[in-house]
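Look over this record as teaching material.
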Amino acid sequence: MNKFEILTCFEDERWQSLAGIDETLILKVRDAVLSTIKKEVDFLSLDKDFMLNLVLSDDQTVHQLNKQFRNIDRPTNVLSFANIDDPFFDEILKSAEDIELGDVIMAFETLSKEADELEISLKDHFCHLWVHGMLHILGYDHIKDNERLEMEAREVEILKKLGIENPYQE
């Protein structure tokens, strides 16, 4: 497989110091995602190198981005900005050797609060939302029910590879 680089920016140091989130875990999740869906995403078979930005940030930053780009005036756990949504993405795929796929931004406080409420580890919740964000970047969505069911099934399959329980079970 071609190179699929993750450029990680730890904007908020709590991600590393409190959560135990590190490059090894980030790459382990990336590999689980790619091994599961590589045959479903046509452009991944191209002779190209791919890059994805992961920004581990805070509620304030994610709130600002959520308001600016989604008109939602509150933080959320994860935002994904997929370059495949760019009308010129197909042209870029044809002409460029290195393909930037987009950005996944996570909010530490929101993820921490949700993990506490769900009574799961922050690490497991991070893995779930990192999988979720990567799937968005690679073209999956959950707007329609059939899309949601497909995306959730992929998430559960990937998380199982990582030894993480199904987050959607009651």
